[in-house]
Design a protein that fits this description.
Strand order of the largest sheet: 3-2-1-4-5
Number of helices: 10
CATH topology of one domain: Nucleotidyltransferase, domain 5
Largest sheet: 5 strands, mixed
CATH superfamily of one domain: Ribonuclease H-like superfamily/Ribonuclease H
Radius of gyration: 18 Å
Shape: globular
Helix content: 40-55%
Strand content: 5-15%
């Protein structure tokens, strides 16, 4: 996976607007900031990341160069709102899903779609990736340009401390965020009636946990050859990949 990842980054033409070369601006920035020794340099790096995201626009979307990602190569994330108690209450949720295997690696629920909630879900995701032998430095995390995802707290943790590469859907084009059309879209649609009838937050959170487990271990996906995400990942270990192209 590492070889394919490095090749994908070095051959992505949209990330070379500053020196005319075919190179990822985020990748170079990550390398530079890995050598950070002073707090001002760290703060400057965060500012550079923010302005890079804003200036690159649609070119910040690395997924355009990876139409068929391998398992654990691209992680997608997004916020969503779940309505419960027959429409009287709502709960926000964010999940991180591996785009290649459809496996939900971590999620969190809360009252506000903020940085704290996003990083709480990311903290659930990191150990799961490491448990599966995934090097965070070989992972692309893709999201939209919500203020949380472009803010200092989020980018500082993921890009600088955890050294993942960030990818962003262009503003005004929600369809570019694969998370909306992948886990979140299916999850809300398929469980809408269950969530609608949940009377309390505790009941809803228990349902969400159960349905995430079902999604990972039982729900079959056509794109995976009609197996569940866990079965698909296990088939990779055994060398019996079943995914349909």
């Amino acid at each position: 996976m590492g070889e394919k990842f490095s090749s994908g980054i070095s051959s992505f033409p949209s990330f070379g607007p500053y020196d005319g070369k075919i190179v990822s601006a985020f990748w170079n920035l990550n390398i530079f900031t890995n050598q950070r020794h002073l707090a001002p340099a760290y703060a400057l790096a965060l500012l550079l990341i923010y302005f890079l995201i804003q200036s690159l626009g649609a070119r910040a979307n690395l997924l355009a160069a990876i139409p068929d990602p391998e398992s654990f190569e691209v992680i997608v994330t997004d916020f969503t709102e779940i309505v419960y108690n027959r429409g009287k209450d709502k709960l926000d949720m964010i999940a991180y899903e591996d785009l290649g295997s459809k496996l939900v690696l971590g999620y969190a629920t809360g009252e506000i779609q903020d940085t704290e909630l996003a990083l709480k879900a990311w903290d659930e995701t990191k150990p799961e990736l490491k448990r599966r032998g995934v090097n965070l430095e070989e992972v692309i995390v893709h999201q939209d340009q919500d203020s949380v995802f472009t803010g200092y707290g989020y980018t500082g943790q993921l890009a600088l401390r955890d050294k993942v590469v960030l990818s962003f859907a262009a503003k005004g084009t929600p369809g570019e965020n694969a998370a909306k059309e992948s886990f979140i879209g299916h999850f809300k649609t398929e469980n809408r009636s269950l969530f609608w009838e949940a009377k309390t937050r505790e009941e809803l959170e228990k349902l969400i946990e159960e349905r995430v487990v079902y999604y990972n271990q039982k729900r079959r996906h056509q794109s995976l050859g009609y197996v569940s995400p866990e079965e698909f990942v296990n088939s990779l270990k055994l060398g019996t990949k079943t995914r349909e192209n």
